[in-house]
Amino acid sequence: MKKLFIAAFALVAFASASPTYAQNKMVGGAEMYPTKGIIDNAVNSKDHTTLVAAVKAAGLVETLKGKGPFTVFAPTDSAFAALPEGTVTNLMSADNKPLLTSILTYHVVAGKMSAKALWAKAKSSKPTVKTVNGGSLTVKADGEKLYLVDAKGGKSWVTIADVNQSNGVIHVVNAVLMP
């Protein structure tokens, strides 16, 4: 009888849990809430401090707080650290704001593209997506991995897919894409 009561209690507790909470993903040690926007979630990720600083330096905070929807391919801090020494510091200077903006908007696609849509794109006859900066990324699938190829041939793997936001979706990537 006691086991039945515990099982029933657990079932009621599980059933009453918020479905939104159950769908949250962890990114950089922080929960990403689908009821919050891209910027409001990104600032909590310990793996995206460089990206957040770059978005601020480029003046794109208000844009990414907009209605969207946006698909953001979000490079991690380690992705930025893999760039040649001094690159990030150089890009963050006021003189290079146009270049920084171009690189960041190369990581954004207008509209909300789920991983399922990206897989379909990878298998299609036109496996490219147009970025907000006017460039394009090639979407490829390799076994279980989904990756993007930039204009210079650089590859970035999607390490965490479908981090839903109120104004779009984030796919965490392991390399900075270059237009």
TrEMBL record:
<feature type="signal peptide">
    <location>
        <begin position="1"/>
        <end position="22"/>
    </location>
</feature>
<feature type="domain" description="FAS1">
    <location>
        <begin position="35"/>
        <end position="177"/>
    </location>
</feature>
<protein>
    <submittedName>
        <fullName>Fasciclin domain-containing protein</fullName>
    </submittedName>
</protein>
<dbReference type="InterPro" id="IPR050904">
    <property type="entry name" value="Adhesion/Biosynth-related"/>
</dbReference>
<dbReference type="InterPro" id="IPR000782">
    <property type="entry name" value="FAS1_domain"/>
</dbReference>
<dbReference type="GO" id="GO:0005615">
    <property type="term" value="C:extracellular space"/>
</dbReference>
<dbReference type="Pfam" id="PF02469">
    <property type="entry name" value="Fasciclin"/>
</dbReference>
<keyword id="KW-0732">Signal</keyword>
<dbReference type="InterPro" id="IPR036378">
    <property type="entry name" value="FAS1_dom_sf"/>
</dbReference>
